[in-house]
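--- STAGE predict ---
source: upstream dedup step, 1 unique chain passed
mode: sequence only
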Amino acid sequence: MESLSEAVDGPGPNDLLRRVAAAADLCLKPHRHAVVISSEPGPEECILRLLCRRADGERAELNDIELEIYRSGEDLHLMLSWPEQTDQPMLWQGHHPVWMDGDSGQRCERPAAGAALEALARRLRALLSPAQP
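--- STAGE serialize ---
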């Protein structure tokens, strides 16, 4: 993908949002997800919000996820957090996962719900990374 704004605003933005939602549905069962654009995408960064619903269709705002996607050079990085659970750490996913305290930025242990979020981050990074020849 040439730029993140092209991926989100381009000819198939709804396809990208559906693919992100499908990845979240797969990794964060039994919840279902819808994805909305949270900030105006730029060429190097965009922020999406994954809106969570329980299996019965009721909203579960506590489980919403904020996904920041950005490039640093040729590398794609993801930041995932639970914006309604400010006591939970955030996940930085580059080549490997790093959990950080949201207030201090210091590394910390993976939270109990962290394995599923790491699986989602790996899947999203593969989905969003350009294909290698």
